[in-house]
Amino acid sequence: MKVRNLTDYRTDDLRKIFAAGLKAEGASLRDTFILVVYIQGSSVSGRASLGRWTGNVNRGARKLSPEYRSCYWIRMELPRPGKKINLFDRPSMIKELAQVLVHEIGHNLELQHREMAPLVSIEVPWAEGLQLRVKDKKPKPTLADRANKRESHVRKMVDKYERQLARTERLLKKWRKKLKHYEAKHRREKMRLAAAKGSDDGDSANS
Ligand SMILES: [Zn+2]
Fold first, then answer.
1. Which of 43, 46, 59, 172 has its CA 20 to 30 A from that of 94?
2. Model-level pTM?
3. Which residues, at least 6 apart from 122, have a Cβ–Cβ distance to it below 8 Å?
4. Is the dihedral angle over the CA atoms 86, 89, 94, 99 positive or is it negative?
5. 114 C-alpha to center of ligand 1: Å?
């Protein structure tokens, strides 16, 4: 079973519900791909492939491993957390989710609507005691956190350029030393040449 969850509901809770439902209906856990998205309204809805699906598995299909390119495909559509769905004549979110899941699994098992029981009469005893929680939101960084982060970045950059500067100074010293060596060598060469020329002049004067 592969679950791609695009909602704020906890994926581990969703997986437990889906696995229990698939098991209860005798459907394939291994080959089922379930996409979870939000719905505009306040009741759970769904869609599913009639039997095996070999096309493009909706959004995120390209990210799926090849074995899920041929799978039993279910799309569960859940109301956003906080949407009131526990009205007096409506089942709980979990029960509604479980009933829709069983209906969609029915499609995966190649059942048509005329062959299935109406949604509200579907019994889902396996869903009792299961829960669907909302993911914990990461706490927003405070102003102090952000300032600390910026300061440590600045510190890192100062360290980096200080190291670069020290290295540059070392290299400059080395190359200056080399330059001095070549300058001295050149000077000595010039003096030697000048001395040699001087003695040549002397020879020519004697001849
Ligand atoms: Zn249907």
1. 59
2. 0.62
3. 98, 99, 102, 103
4. negative
5. 10
